[in-house]
């Protein structure tokens, strides 16, 4: 079933992008007759038991992002893997893989969603403990309110201050930043307190 919001998006797309987006849409319906069309993040997405792929038109290219491409790639032959990579940036309709290949890629995505297969994201590597430079330790020892707040900060908030101070290119900049940091810390503020909600 088509979605009028996707129709509107395609109508507004640049002339070079429209045929690319329309062929991707057609292939989605051929691969999965009950595919659902929607708009997410302002661009067309195609879903079946979860997102299958999204498409977007830019000023000079179009893009199709297959949601589980890392898993799909493992199941495809070399030719289809190349076709999958082509989808990331297309400037003309000629850049699209042929219809049979597109449908094969999309049917693989549908099957993975039918089977409930999830992409396993690797765990982020543990960050090294925050190393507080001696000049900051000395300054904090002279400013008990700032030290108490700093000691209560999460490692990420401590790291933000340490990085900001140690990245100063001159002693003058570091001294100025240190004064600001101590003032903010004494008020219980993290380095980026202005942006916190």
Give an account of the 3D structure.
Helix content is 51%, strand content 11%. It is of the alpha+beta class and 197 residues long. The protein has two domains: 4-114, Alpha-Beta Complex (Aspartate Aminotransferase, domain 1); 134-195, no CATH class. A four-stranded antiparallel sheet has the order 1-2-3-4. The radius of gyration is 26 Å and the shape is elongated. The mean pLDDT is 90.
Average pLDDT, to the nearest integer? 90
Please tally the β strands and state the result: 4
Strand content: 5-15%
User: Radius of gyration over alpha carbons?
Assistant: 26 Å
Count of domain modules = 2
Overall outline:
elongated
CATH topology (level 3) name of the largest domain: Aspartate Aminotransferase, domain 1
**Spans where pLDDT lies below 50 across 5 or more residues:** none
> Largest sheet, order of strands side by side?
1-2-3-4
The DSSP helix count reads: 9
Query: Percent helix among the residues?
Result: 40-55%
SSE string: HHEEEEHHHHHHH
CATH classification class of the largest domain: Alpha Beta
Biggest sheet statistics: 4 strands, antiparallel
Task: List the topology elements.
Layout: H1 4-12, H2 18-31, E1 36-40, E2 43-47, E3 51-57, E4 62-66, H3 69-75, H4 78-86, H5 99-114, H6 134-141, H7 144-152, H8 155-166, H9 171-186
Antiparallel strand pairs: 1-2, 2-3, 3-4
For this entry, give a set of tags.
197 residues, alpha+beta, Aspartate Aminotransferase, domain 1, 2 domains, 4-stranded antiparallel β-sheet, elongated
């Amino acid at each position: 079933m088509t979605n009028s919001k996707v129709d509107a998006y395609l109508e507004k797309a640049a002339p070079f992008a429209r045929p690319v987006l329309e062929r991707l849409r057609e292939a989605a319906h051929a691969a999965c007759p009950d595919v659902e069309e929607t708009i997410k993040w302002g661009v067309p997405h195609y879903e079946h038991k979860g997102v299958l792929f999204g498409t977007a038109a830019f000023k000079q290219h179009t893009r199709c992002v297959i949601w589980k491409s890392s898993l799909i790639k493992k199941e495809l032959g070399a030719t289809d893997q190349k076709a999958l990579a082509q989808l990331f940036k297309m400037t003309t309709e000629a850049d699209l893989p042929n219809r049979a290949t597109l449908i094969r890629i999309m049917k693989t995505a549908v099957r993975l969603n039918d089977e409930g297969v999830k992409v396993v994201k690797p765990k982020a590597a543990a960050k090294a403990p925050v190393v507080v430079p001696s000049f900051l330790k000395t300054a904090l020892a002279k400013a008990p309110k700032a030290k108490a707040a700093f000691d209560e900060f999460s490692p990420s908030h401590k790291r933000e201050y340490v990085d900001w101070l140690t990245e100063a290119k001159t002693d003058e900049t570091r001294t100025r930043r240190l004064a600001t940091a101590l003032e903010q810390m004494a008020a219980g503020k993290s380095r980026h307190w202005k942006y916190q909600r």
